From TrEMBL:
Taxonomic classification: Archaea, Methanobacteriati, Methanobacteriota, Stenosarchaea group, Methanomicrobia
Coiled-coil ranges from the UniProt annotation: none
GO cellular component: membrane protein complex; plasma membrane
Name of the protein described by the UniProt record: ABC transporter related protein
Domain ABC transporter per the UniProt entry, residue ranges: 4-228
């Protein structure tokens, strides 16, 4: 059974002048443990598709199922729980909180969930796991490099041990050497059994995935293994 299933998902943005069909009747299944890349030109619907999969936005029509549960049937609290417990998000611009140190950034989702400070040491262990130097954990995000920020963001995405990891251009702001390190890390998370869906416009990065779909004008225009 697919861990993610989109059934006739259409997303229309209504603008004052016209309607933009960002997703046009998408049908897609992602199996448990699969690593899928989403490619396509700018404006083709990649981010909109990832936001739908991440339950960050509701479809105009059609339906999304996560682990067999119809997202339409969930109330706001259930949806928040699902996003928090099942899905980790990694972004191009890292989205770390500037005023919090690195350890607090990773701890933050736990505070939201348990309404108290962490006493398990998990944030620090995760920072160690992603290879962040121990002397760095009390620094602020603006005191470290882009590659280190993405490591912190990955640690934060993992803190609730999600089965699904969504990555939007995870290497978009990184040099090629650092990109390889981050992709190796994402590949390891896939080997551990996590389901990965990643948006990228770079063929070299898509090649890390097992399967690639290419978006064009809100539709899936091709589908294949790797990119080449
Ligand atoms: P990408 O996903 O390609 O890195 P963005 O998601 O920032 O880039 O934008 C993709 C396209 O969507 C752009 O053409 C941009 O103008 C458009 N877009 C993004 N957000 C909005 C918005 N809030 N209103 C209108 N257009 C938007
Ligand atoms: P991509 O990620 O492939 O660059 P997007 O999913 O960001 O593409 O955008 C798909 C289409 O939807 C584009 O035509 C874009 O301009 C439009 N779009 C995206 N976000 C918004 C928004 N918030 N409001 C209006 N239009 C949007």
């Amino acid at each position: 059974r697919p861990v993610i299933k989109l059934e006739n998902v259409t997303k229309v943005y209504s603008l004052p002048t016209d309607d933009v069909i960002a997703l046009d009747n998408i049908n897609l299944e992602v199996k448990k443990g699969e690593f899928l890349a989403i490619m396509g030109t700018s404006g083709s619907g990649k981010s909109t598709l990832l936001n739908q999969i991440g339950c960050l936005d509701v479809p105009t029509s059609g339906n999304l199922y996560i682990d067999g549960r119809s997202v339409r049937d969930l109330n706001d609290n259930e949806l928040t729980d699902l996003r928090r417990d099942k899905i980790g998000y990694i972004f191009q611009n890292f989205n770390l909180i500037p005023l919090l140190d690195l350890c607090e950034n990773v701890e933050y989702p736990l505070i939201l969930k348990y309404k108290k400070r962490d006493d398990t040491g998990r944030p620090k262990k995760l920072l160690e796991m992603v290879g962040l130097d121990e002397t760095r954990v009390w620094h602020k995000p603006n005191e470290i490099s882009g590659g280190q920020r993405q490591r912190v963001a990955i640690a934060r995405a993992l803190v609730n041990d999600p089965a699904i990891l969504l990555c939007d251009e995870p290497t978009g702001n990184l040099d090629s050497r650092t990109s390889v390190q981050i992709m190796d890390m994402i590949t390891d998370l896939h080997k551990e059994g996590r389901t990965i869906v990643m948006v990228t416009h770079e063929p070299d990065i898509a090649n890390y995935a097992e399967k690639t779909i290419v978006m064009g004008d809100g539709k899936i225009i091709s589908e294949g293994r790797g990119f080449s």
